[in-house]
Amino acid sequence: MSNDDGNRIIITGALGYIGSHTAVELIEAGFEVCLVDNLSCTNIEVLEGIEKITDVKPIYENIDCKDYVAMDKFMNKVGGIKAVIHCAALKNEENSDSNPLAYYRNNIGSLVTLLELLPVHKINCLVCSVPMAANQDSVYHSSLLMCERIINDSMKVNHDLYCTIVHHATAIGAHPTSLVGFNGERGDLQIDISRAAAGKCENVAVYENHIREYIDIMDIAKTHRHIIENIGSQKDRMLKQNLGSGCCLSDIEFVKLFEQINNVRISMDVRVPENNSEQQVVSSNGANSEKLKEAIKNIWRWQLHLGDIESDGKQKSGHLLGGS
Fold first, then answer.
1. Is the pLDDT assigned to residue 287 strictly greater than 70?
2. Where are the domains of the chain?
3. In whole angstroms, what is the distance from residue 22 CA to residue 183 CA?
4. What are the CA-CA distances from residue 211 to residues 53, 67, 228, 250, 273 (Å)?
5. Do 8-173+215-243 and 189-212+247-308 agree at the fold level?
6. Distance (Å, whole) CA 126 – CA 201
7. Who contacts 303 (Cβ-Cβ below 8 Å, separation ≥6)?
8. How far apart, in whole angstroms, are the C-alpha atoms of residue 19 and residue 88?
9. Distance (Å) of CA 71 to CA 7, 15, 26
10. pTM of the model
């Protein structure tokens, strides 16, 4: 298999939340994507969603990108690789503190494998996409710092490598078609809210004064596409991009806005953070953002797509409110 145009983009963690939306965006922009995911945090049905949206069946293999031999074989197989977008990091901060070695092994190990293989296959562009860390003391945040140091050290000897690190705000929403969306474990606020609204859990744990900045998942995907489209025009070999929306909401405000927009009722378990004195003070200003509201609509549309609501709109269980 060869591609003389060098238009192929490898996406790691490609069937995850960030990776899948990025895959759709790149395919629709005319790129040929090659998807790698070991399905540890997702499922193969995501690939079907990508195919339905784009009417394209992308190259995909179930590979753990820490596996040097398997990744080397994959890169040899596809050829003509223009860039790698690395989305395969483990990202749950709370879970990282309970499983530090698993996070270090995955986040550092997968990156090192890629950095070793890029010069072998003459790939000169790497994009790393990661959520901003809310807790500077978390294992997740420590792994990010280590990864950035590793990239910098690698670039001292690989003088052809260009790297962009995208630190983005908390991603929410789903593709407007509802054929690709979010998946993962409880502890992610949008997952907990949508599950509670669908009656799959009794309430949502929220923290007093906990304010987050949110960004539509599609904006992250579009940013990745823009970076790939502008390969070659980058002057600095290392770029760091903080991607946000300026739209901030407290956990409680997020739940209430979700209720208002989607006409549902959600029970909250309001908690006080253990380190309340260290809580970051950020202004809440996102309630009037139309873009944020549309992303919140897409959260619920995706949950409906998952089959938690009957086709007539009646909730199987939970607290769906009557609509007009």
1. no
2. 8-173+215-243, 189-212+247-308
3. 15
4. 34, 38, 32, 4, 12
5. no
6. 40
7. 194, 195, 197, 198, 309
8. 8
9. 18, 16, 21
10. 0.90
**189-212+247-308: what CATH class?**
alpha beta
Angle, CA of 95, 194 and 44, to the nearest 5°: 70
Name the phi and psi angles at 54, rounded to 5: -95, -15
Q: Could you give the CA distance from residue 5 to residue 301 in angstroms, rounded to a whole number?
A: 38
The residue ranking higher by pLDDT, 102 or 285, is 102
- How are strands ordered across the β-sheet holding 211-216? 170-172, 211-216, 247-250
For the chain, the farthest-separated pair of C-alpha atoms sits apart, in whole angstroms, at 64
Q: 35, 60 in Cβ contact below 8 A?
A: yes
Of 23-37, 255-269, 282-296, the poorest mean pLDDT is in 282-296
Nearest to 79 by CA among 161, 6, 162: 6
Say whether 224 sits in a helix, a strand or coil.
helix
Span 185-200, pLDDT tens digits: 666 889 999 999 988 8
Query: For the domain bounded by 8-173+215-243, which CATH number is listed?
Result: 3.40.50.720
Angle at alpha carbon of residue 121, lines to 117 and 122, rounded to 5°? 110
Angle, helix 290-303 to helix 189-197, in steps of 10 degrees: 60
Q: Nearest-CA neighbor of 27 among 321, 224, 160, 165? A: 224
Cα–Cα distance for residue pair 103/96, rounded to 1 Å: 6
Helix extents (H) in 15-99: 17-28, 45-54, 68-78, 93-98
Torsions phi, psi for 8 (to 5 deg): -85, 140
Q: What share of the chain is helix, strand, coil (3-state, %, to 5)?
A: 40, 20, 40
